[in-house]
Amino acid sequence: MTEILIRGAKILAVDAAHGTEPFDGDILIEGATIRAIGPQLSAGPDAQIIEGRGKLVMPGLVNSHTHSSETFFRGRYQGMPLEIWLLYAYPLLMNGAIGERLLYLRSLLLAMESLKNGVTTFCDDFFDPPKHDLDRLGTVFRAYDDVGIRANVSSAVMNIHTLDALPFAREVMPQNLQDQLDFGPPITADAYMDYCKSAFSSLHGKAGRLNFMIAPSAPQRCTRDLLLACYDLARDKAVPFHTHVLETKTQAVTGHEIYGKSLIAYMADLGVLGRNTTIAHSVWVSDDDMRLMGEAGVSIAHNAVSNQKLGAGISPIRRLLDAGVTVGLGTDGVCSNDTSRIFDVMRVAGLIHSVSGPDYSKWVTADEIVRMATIGGARSAMLEQVTGSLEVGKAADLLILNLRNYPFMPLNNVAKHLVYSENGSSIETVMVAGRIVMQAGKLTTVDEDAIFDEIAELVPVHLAEHAELEKRNAVFEPVMAEIHRRSMLQDIGLNRYQGDLPAWPGKN
């Protein structure tokens, strides 16, 4: 079994004993696993020695929420709220599914960029309309296997018509436009369960680091029986029940318009809030919502960058943490963020919560954000026993950063440097399951130049086709704009600063 000894490094373990306080020591890796952490460790005569002097070793970052289906749309959109942006990134009027080679390259590109920027694990909320196809899902798994990343991959599902999952849609959209939106019979809960069970049988656990997860798109987009079936299967297989909830004001209005309560309250009444539940976004949540989430042991993926680009709002992270909710960080898809860098999300999260209220004792700290980017993200992916911290017995998913680089010069507080200064430029080595997948700035598992050449050759035709699709779907933009406008005017009784302002610091 291959041994690697990282010797004399500064170690940021993010474990129960040390938290985000770095210490000096060695790390011994055997095969895929961390076997020892401590001073003056010894290794066998054939061990690979990595000199750690002047280096920081830390857990690989976890991207708690992304969408590989957006990877080719980087740099394409701006100035659109979510409901309008969806028309172009996820068109209502669709062409056929993207070709298999492009599907592979699209998935590969996301994983390549992620690894080069320190993300060793991500949760890909893969969405591939018009149907669920096990072979196509297998293509995504193959890309992630080839590049060497750890991943949870879904095949996101919805079975409620788009217009019935939005407030005001049927009254706002002219009938001639509604008539164009014939998506055929929706998938049934039984059919989706059969598909998922086949995915678990054939793909789950591939290479010891690739898993299938259950992903109902959102509670308002799925029937009750589908949500319940998804939740039961997620619990049975010990995987995330990964969904989108309360990203925008429109979604906040949706719950009250359709169910007479918030979407979180609806999920609680249905019985689909629990340890397995991971909620992407969680922006427009009330105190009652957060209490229910904390009591149930829910996790969220905080998409600090994409929420700002789409004008969705700022998630009340301090109040969520205080309620007992686990928080991970997500990039969301590349075309609502434009990178897959979690370091960017860390920095934005470190800045935006300082406007959550004048009580600066409640602002989110760098130490908390480092935990969100590592062990918090691992917990949201239900992988906290595998990754997210440097501990004996866990997978050797780690980063080696050069401390003799601008983001750390001079060195003051490691966590603050990582959140406010680092952008990924200091990463020298990335390891997943004991395998070095990036070294000296180059991926070791794929030929980056060859992949870039192939993308440059094949993708322009695809993007030209997509441009025509955008033109076809532009007819719906005034409708979505009106839905957005009406939602903004609705009073849902949610004070964005509620609970953040009990008193000025030190005031009785």
From TrEMBL:
Residues 56-437 form the Amidohydrolase-related domain. PANTHER family: AMIDOHYDROLASE-RELATED DOMAIN-CONTAINING PROTEIN, AMINOHYDROLASE SSNA-RELATED. It comes from Rhizobium setariae. Gene3D superfamilies: Metal-dependent hydrolases, Urease, subunit C, domain 1. This is Amidohydrolase. One of its GO terms (molecular function) is hydrolase activity, acting on carbon-nitrogen (but not peptide) bonds. The lineage of its organism: Bacteria, Pseudomonadati, Pseudomonadota, Alphaproteobacteria, Hyphomicrobiales. Belongs to the metallo-dependent hydrolases superfamily. ATZ/TRZ family. It comes from the Bacteria. Keywords: Hydrolase.
